[in-house]
Amino acid sequence: MRAWVRATRSCARVPAWRSLTAFFAIVALASATATAQTPAPDAKPLRIVVPFAPGGAQDVIGRYLGGHLSTRLGVPVVIDNKAGAGGVIAADAVAKAAPDGNTLLLATGGAISIAPHLHAKLPYDPRRDFAAVAMVADTPMTLAVRTQSAYTSVADVLRDARARPGQVSYASTGNGTVSHLTGELLAQMAGVTFLHVPYRGAAPAITDLLGGQVAMMVTSAASIEPMVGDSKARVLASFTTARIGTLKGAPTMAEATSIKGLEVPVWVGLLAPAKTPATLLEKLGAELVAVCKLPETQERFKALGAVPACGGAKELDRVIADDFQRWGKVIQQGNIKAE
Questions:
Q1: Which residue of 42, 60, 185, 255 is 20 to 30 Å from 236, comparing CA positions?
Q2: Are 257 and 155 in contact (CB under 8 A)?
Q3: Long-range contacts of residues 307-311, Cβ cutoff 8 Å, at least 24 apart
Q4: What is the pTM assigned to this prediction?
């Protein structure tokens, strides 16, 4: 049994079980045919809670998946945006939802593997209150500078940081975000100290990066790609296992530094409330992985700056466990506190 999440193997005692009989019939029919199914009149909507405001990459991913799930399962899918508190509000809502397979969380590491190390108390337990469903994407991080920067490589950055400890600045999308922690991870593993400058989101940070107010920025590929395309910014390296084709040949951080352990999967996955019946988790997971593997999905995600990462519950469990351990060490070593 997985230590990270617990899902009951029996649904005999779940109050919503009988109400799902029609749902299972629709699921079976959807799996047997390639055409879209007409929702049953009494079909209960599937709700996907997104911890971000409408319009962002994760919101677009959630809506895209929701549309395909609605077609494949023959049930209405509702996207419920609950932004704020680094994803904690959305995660809490799903943790307290009925474990009937009708509520899913479009989860990222913020509320699941970072927040527990920054807050003494959360309204949910990320290791006990959720069951993994599927992993669908990775939104990779990069280290970027403006085109006029004297830094032409990560080696230049680290050399300057060793000569001027605590004076080489990097922008992040906020204190305690994966952007902040990824920069701190690089500093710790390279044995240097940077000057962290937190912003309220990517847009103002990129503005100051291009204006020269900060030396560099740790940000998602999706956020910086337009600036790279317009030759306003350069990516020195990506925190990925393989190069990102849209970043004009930028190396991976391992290639740039020869330091192992700088691969940071910024995962996007689906979680359900704990005690959701295992049969429902397996069915929903299989449908999500199938959608993730569609050529259309691959292209759509790449256009959003995301890398399709299609994996089932076990794969998502492993990634979350690694993520939880990684950020716990970074936060403890860096003595990082929540604002």
A1: 60
A2: yes
A3: 307/137, 307/138, 307/139, 307/140, 307/240, 307/244, 308/136, 308/137, 308/138, 309/135, 309/136, 309/137, 309/138, 309/265, 309/267, 309/268, 310/134, 310/135, 310/136, 311/134, 311/135
A4: 0.82
CB neighbour list of residue 142: distance below 8 Å, 6 or more residues apart = 218, 219, 220, 221, 224, 235, 236, 237, 238, 239, 244, 247, 250
State the DSSP code for 77. Answer: E
Angle at 86 between CA 209 and CA 83, to 5 degrees: 100
Per-residue pLDDT of the chain (339 residues; tens, 9 = 90+): 344 444 333 333 434 333 333 333 333 333 333 333 444 445 689 999 999 888 888 899 999 999 999 999 999 999 999 988 889 999 999 999 999 999 999 999 999 999 999 998 999 999 999 999 999 999 999 999 999 999 999 999 999 999 999 999 999 999 999 999 999 999 999 999 999 999 988 899 999 999 999 999 999 998 899 999 999 999 999 999 999 888 888 999 999 999 999 999 899 999 999 999 999 999 999 999 999 999 999 999 988 888 889 999 999 999 999 999 999 999 999 999 887
Kindly provide the residue ranges of all beta strands, DSSP E only, lying in the chain, ordered along the sequence. 46-50, 77-81, 103-107, 130-138, 141-146, 169-172, 195-198, 216-220, 233-238, 267-273, 307-311
Does domain 18-139+266-334 fall into CATH 3.40.190.150?
Answer: yes
Q: Region of 320 please: left (phi>0), alpha (psi -120 to 50) or beta.
A: alpha
Amino acid at 161: A
Q: 115-151: string of b/e by CB count within 10 Å (b at 16+)?
A: bbbbeeebebebbebbbbbbbbbbbbbbbbbbeebeb
Distance CA 138, CA 132 (A): 16
Q: Domain residues of the chain, as ranges?
A: 18-139+266-334, 141-257
Would the CA dihedral through 194, 197, 200, 205 be positive or negative?
A: negative
Q: Does domain 141-257 have CATH number 3.40.50.300?
A: no
Angle at 135 between CA 134 and CA 138, to 5 degrees: 170
